[in-house]
Amino acid sequence: MTIIAFALVLLPFILEKGFSTYYLYLFIKAMVWALFAVSFNLVLGYGGMMSFGHAAFFGVGAYACSLLLVKASCPLVLAFVAGPLVAALAGAVIGFFSVRIRGLFYFAVITLSFAQLVYILVFKWRTLTFGMTGSKGFRCLT
Questions:
Q1: What is the Cα–Cα distance from 32 to 141, expressed in whole angstroms?
Q2: Is 129 in contact with 67 (CB distance < 8 Å)?
Q3: Helix 21-40 crosses helix 55-70 at what angle (to 10 degrees)?
Q4: What was the pLDDT predicted at 32?
Q5: What's the whole-model pTM score?
């Protein structure tokens, strides 16, 4: 297991040097989806709770990272560390209210409601998040 984890850490550096950036982009996208699947398995498989809102935390972390890069001109390493921390803080706040609900249906509804709240905040708060156009000012891999 340690060898696989070590290989997955080294693979982006190998892909960056010897191949086109498309393979690096594809690997990163696959790892993000794998993390998403693991989190969904943790909530539904082990916890038995149907969550419709855990994707909002990916968005909160991504927006926190990109807004720190664009608006605050933070260093890349600091923004990458702050993204998951902000997502964890949002998860603690939303989780505080969500886990107190009894019943599978009600838990699903409240997580969906919080996800819609995050969605509306991101797309309507144009002065902070740039609304529908998204963050600008940094170059992506695509």
A1: 15
A2: yes
A3: 140
A4: 84
A5: 0.70
Q: Could you give phi then psi for residue 133, rounded to 5 degrees?
A: -75, -20
- For the chain, give the mean pLDDT: 82
Euclidean distance between CA atoms 31 and 62, whole angstroms = 15
Q: What is the pLDDT of residue 141?
A: 46
Q: Where are the beta strands (DSSP E) in the chain?
A: none
In this prediction, what percent of the chain has a pLDDT beyond 70?
A: 92
Check: CB of residue 101 under 8 Å from CB of residue 107: yes
- The residue behind tokens 């838990």 is 107
Question: Which two tokens mark 109?
Answer: 């509804």
- Tell me, what DSSP letter sits at residue 114? H
